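Researcher: I'd like a structural prediction for the single chain below. Treat it as a standalone chain; there are no partners to consider.
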Amino acid sequence: MKGIITLILTCLLLISSGCSKDSLPDEPLPDTQAFKNEFTRGFMASAEETEDGYYTFESKTNGYTMLFPEHAKVSESDFESHEDKYETFSLGEKMKNQNTSYYIKLTYEKAPSINDIDVHQELLAVTSGYKGDFKREEFSKNIVYSARENNEEEGLFYYIAVVKAKGTDQLIRLTFDSSCSNGETECNVNPNELNQRLTNIVHSIQFK
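Model: Treating it as a single chain, here is the predicted structure.
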């Protein structure tokens, strides 16, 4: 009994003196939306920038990583994951210098049927209303099938893609679109900046 009382008093003393483990100051987190938002922060692999303005996003399926813009946020309400086979979510960012917001919808799948690329292109085409062809690009570890359109006057930039890992049963379907953040203010869309943001994310996808 005396030992228990001593232990309790010791703990109280540590807490009151600020010496308990929980009271130690945490490492300062980056002053960005990706870390201010608690749900989004749960996907960040590290508080260290991977590239200027980007951190590393790590999938809850442990199936892939990619670059994540420092001021983007993941929507908790849109997130869904099933073991290591499936994950879908959306992320968005307001680019105040352009009065533009962009949104990305990303779906990851791991299944033997992944190799039927036409099916996944058709899924994107149906959901987006796109009726044209997809451009095929081959990189060291991934193959990307994509299509894009943009209307600078209306502040629109649109992109859809299927990203297939070579030699595996993993794939990502992705849509990217932008719009004016505030309808009362003129959009100052920089398509090159939006395209660079998109390219950085898509080309950074690494399947595990």
